[in-house]
Amino acid sequence: MFWDKEYENSSRIWGDGPSELAVITVKYLQNHRLNKKFLNIIDIGCGYGRDCLYLAKHLNCCIFGIDTSQKAIEILKNSIAEPYTKAIEFKCCSFMDLDQCKYDVVFASNQYQILQGRQREELREKIANLLKPEGLLFLNNLSTNDPEEYGKGEPCPDEPRSFINNKYLHFCTREELEEDFRFLSIKELYEHRYDEPRAQGETHHHISWILIAEHTGQR
Question: pTM for this one?
Answer without folding.
Answer: 0.93
